């Protein structure tokens, strides 16, 4: 039986039903306790199909630029995501956030599809920049789960959210690095992420 890797999970994610895009663990209600913030922080990156697809695709992309540069790119995503979350909680909008999140997933998918076997020397810098831009919108969207919550649930949510996202991204990166130049699997991951992003974009436009 083939090994079920994060790359394969992206493919499976594309086949999941569209309602998973709702991604709100508290049923639309804001967290009121630290425990609820913790639960929401664990669940949000997983049940949000567009967010999950991006994290997995980002991990695969990060693997292509080396360990240090890949970790730096993922850190740029996480850091910018925290900024985006704070902006939302502070009442600053970033426009059509859900559409931007969907476009970032499409962008990650297309990048995987188009990436050459040997990336150019400037790839790590561009990847970190792209991840940072995507992080702003993902973080802004994530903040909806604790909008109107008190300090305790917000802090618990943010800490857990950062840990879960980092774990998913680093796991995808590690498995992708272990596979080496498995270009066919990268293409499958890219195709799946592109499909997930396209579905999410359609849902955002029709909402």
Describe the structure.
The structure is a single chain. By secondary structure, this protein is mostly helical. Helices cover 73% and strands 0% of the residues. The longest helix has 29 residues, at 151-179. Residues 17-22 have low confidence and may be disordered.
Quick summary of this structure?
The protein has 207 residues and is mainly α. Helices cover 73% and strands 0% of the residues. The protein contains 8 helices and no strands.
Order of helices and strands: HHHHHHHH
Instruction: Give the CA-CA distance, first to last residue.
Output: 40 Å
In one word, what is the shape? globular
Low-confidence stretches: 17-22
User: How much of the polypeptide forms β-strand, as a percent range?
Assistant: under 5%
| Rg over CA atoms | 16 Å
Indicate the mean pLDDT.
Answer: 84
Count of individual beta strands: 0
How would you classify the helix and strand content by structural class? Answer: mainly alpha
Helical stretch tally? 8
Please outline the major beta sheet: none
């Amino acid at each position: 039986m083939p090994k079920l890797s994060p790359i394969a999970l992206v493919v499976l994610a594309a086949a999941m039903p569209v309602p998973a895009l709702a991604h709100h663990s508290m049923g639309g209600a804001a967290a009121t306790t630290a425990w609820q913030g913790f639960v929401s922080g664990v669940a949000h990156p997983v049940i949000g199909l567009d967010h999950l697809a991006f994290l997995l695709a980002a991990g695969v992309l990060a693997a292509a630029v080396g360990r240090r540069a890949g970790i730096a790119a993922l850190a740029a995503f996480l850091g910018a995501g925290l900024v985006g979350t704070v902006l939302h909680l502070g009442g600053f909008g970033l426009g059509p956030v859900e559409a931007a999140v969907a476009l970032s997933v499409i962008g990650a998918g297309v990048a995987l599809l188009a990436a050459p076997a040997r990336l150019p020397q400037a790839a790590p810098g561009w990847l970190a920049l792209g991840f940072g831009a995507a992080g702003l919108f993902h973080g802004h969207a994530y903040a909806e789960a604790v909008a109107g919550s008190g300090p305790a649930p917000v802090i618990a949510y943010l800490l857990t959210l950062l840990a879960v996202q980092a774990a998913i991204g680093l796991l995808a990166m590690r498995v992708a690095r272990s596979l080496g130049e498995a270009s066919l699997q990268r293409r499958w991951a890219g195709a799946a992420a592109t499909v997930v992003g396209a579905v999410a974009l359609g849902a955002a436009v029709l909402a």
